[in-house]
């Protein structure tokens, strides 16, 4: 497909996603709706990562940390509500209009603090440092014994409460996730097209040139890093509500790797790509074992990663442009 | 005081492990410009092979001697099949491809050895304690690790500063295109260096076997600490890796041992244990943050290659 088909493709995709819960129900498998909700949530995280990775050229290997922070804000406040105890003298809450922005804000602050440090470096250092700081947050949550430590924290009070909307209903929650994904996608598209986005892409192409032109490069990169952190925080908030469970595992460095893979698999430097990547990754993760099971390859069914790892290497080596590149071939003179 | 010295030695010993892994990683990056996430897997392979062979033959020495070629072989295969294709790629590709390697190796190890951790006894000859500092008994095995680590570090230093290969390595880390242009078989040098790095990591893994449980994921734990070491020490610098390793090893060990007790001086014991536990596991990362603020390129930045 030529690139001009991207918009119709997206609209068709959106219509399909809107109709999906009914299709799933008609097919007699409402469970699919939950799987797709998970895909939508991770798509938000992947888009937010691609904003700094694909457009800003910052290879952050610690993106799951901000997702985990957002998720933990929701779960900890829910824990205090259920427990009846106070947190910093305030009662816990599960009122979504309070908790959700708070989760996003805390993630943004975490991204601001760590990003301010990480962005003092670049290249290979940046990769290692983002990874290391994410691991630091991982250990922080492991050590919070009160909130379950290693074992994680169940949200016994259930999902957050939204006025007029019953989030406990899986179909309703699915639409909330979809709405947030569409909103975040449009926001990022506006950011990428804005002056800020142009400067960011200029920095990716040649940081020195942008600095020489007088742009405060560091501040631009940090601002993008914080926006990405907030986006991941939003995904975390939704993910905690989706599974009603959080654990340090959400911040584990392999999860950061997973989000990175989603971006690459879908197509780096595009906003549609990460959505495709999230879908492809999570579906592979879920159905690769099933497929091997059907082929009665029992050894591979339990150890599907032994196939997935080399697949990833091959994709990196030979299919750089990802699914987006497969779907929308670049036209001549298209950069 | 007794406990303090003992913990310092424990920290030194952790530092030795970190150094053995970090030295290979930092050299590989300094010269080849490749970041290899799967370096920790070589540590794990060393540990698994040592544990298996030791349990089969009953001799730790045989296990150790088997682990070294096994790790080297694994390293050469990894270099030949994957890493070789990554030299000209950007860091993102390297990170992702070697992440794929980790997934593969971890799963393959699970297929061969299962999910239950292996345990390895300290060899009989090195059991018991010794008082190298009068009044402070310390396990012989840990002393042996420290001694072996220092020996390897000295050997490495001799090879790098006194031999022709070492000269090429140093030249390569300064300007690899020039070295290649001067007619050195750079791809052979790369493979050799990769094998050497693998041997060091495998050696560390084999030695760590009796102290920790040998399990999948042990490689990544040490890998991430190694990143902290390299960031602190400066990429491509052996000296930086040595100083960074000891620093991280000692700070981490002392923090875990004493931080909760120190906090107990001015807060409730239950809180002190909780906060102290969390803080001590974050301590090395905070150390890294401080180094970054003061010297963004690490304590001993290498002349080139780090950019």
Automatic annotation (TrEMBL), chain A:
The entry's cellular-component GO terms read: plasma membrane
Q: Which domain of life is it from?
A: Bacteria
One Pfam match? BPD_transp_2
The record's CDD domains line, in alphabetical order, gives: TM_PBP1_LivM_like (cd06581)
Q: Which membrane topology term applies here?
A: Multi-pass membrane protein
Q: Which UniProt keywords apply?
A: Cell membrane, Membrane, Transmembrane, Transmembrane helix
Matching InterPro entries: ABC_transp_permease, LivM-like
Compartments, as annotated in UniProt:
Cell membrane
Answer whether the UniProt record assigns the keyword Iron to this protein. no
Which Gene Ontology terms cover its molecular function?
A: branched-chain amino acid transmembrane transporter activity
Residue ranges of the TM segments:
36-57, 64-82, 98-117, 124-144, 172-197, 218-239, 259-284, 304-323
Under PANTHER family, the record lists:
ABC TRANSPORTER ATP-BINDING PROTEIN, HIGH-AFFINITY BRANCHED-CHAIN AMINO ACID TRANSPORT SYSTEM PERMEASE
What's the protein here called?
Answer: Branched-chain amino acid ABC transporter permease
Q: Which organism is it from?
A: Microbaculum marinum
TrEMBL record, chain B:
For this chain's UniProt record, which GO biological process terms are given? amino acid transport
| Keywords annotated in UniProt | Amino-acid transport, Cell membrane, Membrane, Transmembrane, Transmembrane helix, Transport
**GO CC term, one of those recorded:** plasma membrane
Transmembrane segments annotated in the record for this chain: 12-38, 58-83, 95-114, 140-160, 180-203, 223-251, 272-294
Where is the protein situated, by its record's location annotation?
Cell membrane
The record ties this protein, via Pfam families, to: BPD_transp_2 (PF02653)
Indicate yes or no for the key word Nucleus.
no
Molecular function GO labels: transmembrane transporter activity
Q: Does the keyword Transport apply?
A: yes
**UniProt xrefs under InterPro entries:** ABC_transp_permease (IPR001851), BCAA_transport_permease (IPR052157)
Membrane topology value: Multi-pass membrane protein
Q: Give the similarity note.
A: Belongs to the binding-protein-dependent transport system permease family. LivHM subfamily.
This chain's protein is named Branched-chain amino acid ABC transporter permease
Origin species: Microbaculum marinum
């Amino acid at each position: 497909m030529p690139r001009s088909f991207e918009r119709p493709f997206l609209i068709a995709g959106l219509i399909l996603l809107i109709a999906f819960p009914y299709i799933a129900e008609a097919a007699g498998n409402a469970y699919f709706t939950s799987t797709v909700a998970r895909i939508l949530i991770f798509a938000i995280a992947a888009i937010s990562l691609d904003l700094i990775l694909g457009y800003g050229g910052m290879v952050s290997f610690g993106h799951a940390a901000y997702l985990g922070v957002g998720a933990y804000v929701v779960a900890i406040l829910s824990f205090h509500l259920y427990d009846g105890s106070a947190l910093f003298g305030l009662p816990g809450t599960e009122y979504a209009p309070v908790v959700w922005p708070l989760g996003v804000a805390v993630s943004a602050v975490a991204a601001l603090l760590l990003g301010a440090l990480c962005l003092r470096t670049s290249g290979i250092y940046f990769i290692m440092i983002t990874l290391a700081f994410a691991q630091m947050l991982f250990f922080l949550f492991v050590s919070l014994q009160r909130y379950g430590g290693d074992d994680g924290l169940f949200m016994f009070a259930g999902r957050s409460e939204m006025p007029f909307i019953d989030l406990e209903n899986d179909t309703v929650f699915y639409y909330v996730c979809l709405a947030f994904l569409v909103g975040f996608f449009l926001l990022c598209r506006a950011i990428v097209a804005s002056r800020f986005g142009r400067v960011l892409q200029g920095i990716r192409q040649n940081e020195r040139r942008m600095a020489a032109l007088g742009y405060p490069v560091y501040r631009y990169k940090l601002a993008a890093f914080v926006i990405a952190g907030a986006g991941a925080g939003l995904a975390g908030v939704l993910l905690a509500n989706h599974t009603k469970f959080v654990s340090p595992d959400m911040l584990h460095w392999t999860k950061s790797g997973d989000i990175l893979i989603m971006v690459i698999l879908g197509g780096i430097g595009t906003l549609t790509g990460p959505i495709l990547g999230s879908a492809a990754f999570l579906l592979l993760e879920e159905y690769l074992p099933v497929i091997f099971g059907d082929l009665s390859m029992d050894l591979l069914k339990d150890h599907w990663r032994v196939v997935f790892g080399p697949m990833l290497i091959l994709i990196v080596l030979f299919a750089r442009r990802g699914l987006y590149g497969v779907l929308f071939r670049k036209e001549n003179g298209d950069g | 005081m007794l406990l303090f010295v003992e913990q310092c030695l424990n920290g030194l010993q952790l530092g030795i492990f970190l150094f053995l892994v970090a030295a290979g990683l930092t050299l590989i990056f300094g010269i080849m410009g490749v970041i290899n996430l799967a370096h920790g897997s070589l540590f794990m392979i060393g540990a698994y092979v040592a544990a298996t062979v030791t349990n089969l033959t009953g001799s730790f020495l045989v296990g150790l001697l088997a682990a070294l070629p096994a790790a080297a072989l694994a390293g050469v295969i990894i270099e030949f099949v994957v890493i070789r294709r990554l030299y000209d790629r950007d860091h993102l590709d390297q990170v992702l491809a070697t992440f794929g390697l980790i997934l593969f190796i971890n799963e393959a190890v699970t297929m061969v050895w299962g999910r239950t951790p292996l345990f390895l006894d300290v060899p009989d000859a090195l059991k018991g304690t010794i008082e190298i500092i009068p009044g402070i008994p310390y396990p012989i095995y840990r002393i042996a690790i420290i001694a072996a680590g220092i020996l390897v570090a000295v050997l490495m230093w001799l090879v790098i500063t006194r031999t022709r290969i070492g000269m090429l390595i140093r030249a390569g880390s300064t300007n690899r295109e020039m070295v290649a242009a001067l007619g050195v078989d750079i791809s052979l040098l790369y493979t050799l260096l990769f094998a050497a790095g693998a041997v060091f990591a495998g050696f560390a893994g084999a030695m760590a076997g009796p102290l920790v449980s040998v399990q999948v994921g042990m490689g990544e734990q040490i890998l991430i600490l190694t990143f902290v070491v390299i960031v602190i020490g400066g990429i491509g610098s052996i000296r930086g890796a040595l100083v960074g390793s000891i620093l991280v090893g000692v700070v981490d060990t002392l923090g875990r041992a004493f931080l909760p007790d120190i906090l107990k001086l001015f807060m409730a014991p239950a809180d002190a244990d909780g906060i102290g536990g969390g803080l001590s596991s974050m301590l090395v990362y905070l150390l890294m943050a401080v180094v970054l603020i003061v010297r963004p390129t690490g304590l001993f930045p290498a002349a080139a290659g780090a950019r």
